[in-house]
Amino acid sequence: MLSWDFESHIDEVEFEFNVGALLDTSSSKEVNPIVNSQQLDYENACNALNKVSMEIEVRLFRRNNKIKSLEKEIEENN
Which of 10, 12, 16 lies closest to 66 in space, CA to CA? Predict the structure, then answer.
């Protein structure tokens, strides 16, 4: 499990995805970003939240790898 001090890095983390769009089950209407669980069936809601969770994990994994790479580069240059 990735550990991340989100509050201290919130300005650095870029979330380019639209949670509302991920939770939209039909392309014909806009979805309010506040999820109304009564409008979504359980399976679609779980799938959408899994997509969001996976996107966050991927971005944090990449960020951590970038940090490790920069730390290694700094060590090599010292």
Answer: 12
pLDDT at res. 17: 45
The segment with the largest mean pLDDT, out of 17-21, 37-41, 57-61, is: 57-61
Q: Report pTM.
A: 0.44
78 to each of 22, 29, 64, 70, 73, how far by Cα in Å?
Answer: 45, 56, 21, 12, 9
Q: Distance between CA 21 and CA 12 in Å, rounded?
A: 23
**CA 63 to CA 78: how far, in whole Å?**
23
